[in-house]
Every structure is written in structure tokens, then in C-alpha cells.
Amino acid sequence: MTYRTTSGLALCLLLAGCGGAARPSATVTTPETVPAPSLAALDGTTWKVTVEPMEPDEKPFQDTLRFSGGRERQLTFEGFQKQGFAPASFSTPGMGAESADPLGFEATLNNPTGESLNVSGRATVEAVWGQVRLRKADWTLRTYRFRGVPLKK
Q1: 81 vs 89: CA distance, rounded Å
Q2: What pTM was computed for the model?
């Protein structure tokens, strides 16, 4: 009996000392806490992204990521398109059951030299982020991270 009373009192004092539940916590908006767009909302959007190479000797660069809608949904990375990577269909595997889950997307873009660009990422209405894996013709692999915001229409 004394143990329960002492434990309960200690818990109350601990909660009161650190603010307990009396103060509401601040809400921080991160890409993971912003509602996800529906697939239709992603169609026709353009994003300004920063692409960061994982290699220490390479510098980050700006690019534009575009999702075009219609019957054949296409993903385009404009900077990589200049290197011959044609737009490609994208899929949305593993869409979360909760509406707040970020929308996942994947695509593989190819160029005439036999190189492939695997793009995978997540999107909310305010942010997009993910990874790009470039397999060169000699089978070397380069990995990049990207993060961006929507361009206003």
C-alpha cells in the first residue's frame, strides 16, 4: 500500500515538475506531419529540388522534378533529361492507409547509352524528398538525395 502511494506521489510530482500535460506541446511541421496529396493532386505538379550527391567530391545542384498527369503518368527530372534520360511512368507503391501518410512514388528513367536512373521518394502537399540511384553504362553506381518544394503555378 505504501509503495503504491509513494509511487503515485512521485509520478505526480515528476509530471508537475516538467509541466505534465498542463501545457500543450508545440506542433512542428515536417514533411512527415503534413497531409499527403492524393495521386490526382500530384499529377501536373512541378517541384524545385536540391539534389545532393552522396560522393564527398561532388556538389549539390538544383533541378526540377515534374509529375505529368493524364492516362500515362510521367516523371521527369529536367537536369537528367538533358543527359538523355527520357521521362518515364511512375508508380505509387505502398500508399499508406492513413490520409496523413506521405505518398510514395517510384520510376526508372533510361537513356540511349544504357544508363538507368532509379528515382524513389515521398511527397506531401508541401514537400517532396527521396533518393536517386544512377547506374552508369560501366555499372558504377552513384547515389543522390533530393528534397524540394512545389513551384507555384
Answers
A1: 14
A2: 0.70
